[in-house]
Amino acid sequence: MEGFQQQFIISVFIILLGYFFKRTKILKESDGQTIARIVFNITLPALVLVTFNQMEITLPLVSLIVIAILFGLVAAAAGFFVFRSADTDLKGMAIMMMPGVNVGLFAFPLVEAIWGREGIQYFGMFDVGNAVIVFGLCFFIASYFANGSSKFYLRETVSPLLRSIPFLTYMFVVALNIFDFHLPTFLLDTAEIISGANMPLSLLLLGLYLNFSFEKSWFPLIGKYLAVKYGTGLVLGLSLFWLFSDYPMLANTVLIGFILPTSTTAVVYAIRYRYNAKIAGTIVNITIILSFLLIWVLASFVAYH
């Protein structure tokens, strides 16, 4: 337990260090785009390669793909019910931001610190289902309310998945395990060294993106959004945590996965479809802080039980 608390303290320190670098202009927030490309296209895929190598494909692991997709559908339905009477723009933005969560950037460094490589395997499978939600369902919701059209363009939905290096890496390593093919030792050793940079870079990036300025008029919308997001996540997460008590890592993944921050892709969709990108960015920032605190509380609870 002492080691677990120490890891969280170190994580907080690195995030604050990133924020300090931004405030003192050692780094700029725009530098985060470069760091994000390095994380998503180099260090995260390297971590996936090393972690998933010779992974045993089990039913609990595969079930996480389905669980993540079902959770996204339920979260979207909850958002639609709560925001059904809001203005079209606000309704579209709020519902679009409800289903997807930030696994690769936010969860992986914390999960690696708490549960090691086994945790990365479980959250990696959860992220496969989450990617379908983020690039499929969230994209459809954003475009539907922006254009007032129910047309669904499969090409525009599949294209981001096929360009996502982390997603393609997941598919690649799962295929390798199914066919019992092993990567060369030299390649794995190289990936091992590169993957060591994933945790500090991801946490620094979170610090660079922290922003605490927002308008008071946004409070009602943000408050309602946070209540629905975390209310739904906690109720479902705690219920499944007890249901899957015989499979501890599966239970932990569901419990933590359902309260992860809003996906940063939501800001990209907000810009593309002319929603209020500032509100979207503020919500993402607030959920980063709230999720970090909730994960610390829930992970402490799991550690004691």
Short note summarizing the structure:
The chain has 305 residues and is an all-alpha fold. It has 13 helices and no strands. It is a multi-pass membrane protein.
Account of the protein in words:
This protein is mostly helical and 305 residues long. The chain has a single domain (2-304), classed as Na+/H+ antiporter like fold (Up-down Bundle), CATH 1.20.1530.20. 79% of the residues lie in helices and 0% in strands. The protein has helices at residues 2-23, 31-52, 59-82, 88-97, 103-147, 154-163, 165-178, 185-195, 198-209, 219-243, 248-257, 265-272, 277-304. Helix 1 packs across helix 9 (198-209) and helix 2 runs antiparallel to helix 9 (198-209). The relative contact order is 0.17.
Mean pLDDT: 85
Helix amount, in percent?
over 70%
Quote the beta fraction: under 5%
Largest sheet: none
Pattern of helices and strands: HHHHHHHHHHHHH
For the terminal residues, how far apart are their CA atoms?
11 Å
**Which structural class fits the helix and strand makeup?**
mainly alpha
CATH topology: Na+/H+ antiporter like fold
Quick one: how many beta strands?
Answer: 0
Name of the CATH first level: Mainly Alpha
CATH architecture: Up-down Bundle
